[in-house]
Amino acid sequence: xxxxxxxLFILFAFITTITKAQEVIPFTLGExxxxxxxxxxxxxxxxxxxxxxxxxxxxxxxxxxxxxxxQIKFDSLTENVGGHGTSQEMMSFKNTVSxxxxxxxxxxxxxxxxxxxxxxxxxxxxxxxxxxxxxINYENNELVxxxxxxxxxxxxxxxKIKFVNGLPFIKFTLFEGNKKKKILGMIDTGYNGTxxxxxxxxxxxxxKDKYQIIGEATSTGSDGNxxxxxxxxxxxxxxxxxxxxxxxxxxxxxxxxxxxxxxxGGEILKRFHIVLDFKKNVIYLQPNIKINSSFx
Length: 296
Hints:
The structure is a single chain. By secondary structure, the protein is mainly β. The chain folds into two domains: 3-146, Acid Proteases (Cathepsin D, subunit A, domain 1, Beta Barrel), CATH 2.40.70.10; 157-287, Beta Barrel (Cathepsin D, subunit A, domain 1), CATH 2.40.70.10. The protein is 3% helix and 51% strand. The strands form four sheets. Strands 16, 17, 18, 19, 20, 21, 22, 23, 24 and 25 form a ten-stranded mixed β-sheet that branches. Strands 6-7-12-8-11-10 form a six-stranded mixed β-barrel.
């Protein structure tokens, strides 16, 4: 087999401009803080896929293929690059993926074995909608897609997206007394936590033993590797102009080599209205009604 390497109505005083949504995709916000949308793969019944900005491909949960009667043929192998290492996974070509009124042909699909008890049947990566402007409304539980530019209100703050290994990142600031550390975090709607900082970044930024430890955590990446971490409570974290207090974050303590510094997960992202413009590589953020809700 071949091997392939892979790494989601404005009114002005004098002019009224209507930007029409091409598609409104309802989603369910799971108890795991992930965005679940309905997807059909190769004509299948509706499947529950996670819309994952921390992925750049379409993934099918191989443990669900038989029970969901999904028709798929795996043709090759691919290298899956996770947060703590890599794994070899199956790749399928020439697939049809439908989401609402949007259908894409000849889609490559990676097969990964997630636990059968997991809700997710698969994953839709950020680049499936890369030609659209995307508004994530966590209050109405909707993904809204626009063909033309969505006119973003001045109440949003604008942030530059940096891509690392084909995945989107933005900077956030971690405070330690009068000191602050700027860290590059992946915009990862597939991660259910707040912020997780990888081992190398923890030690390069001298974060160990700087914060109150309130617990421990264990996580498993898509590459199958398991890591242990300290759950700590920093003074505050800022994301653009927004300061967030009393938010537990994870500092990884298992030694590993990762190409990434940190993850920004669904537990923090769900507190914002989000507009993504991947053509210009920018993200817009505005706090929503969840901004002051307690952390799990």
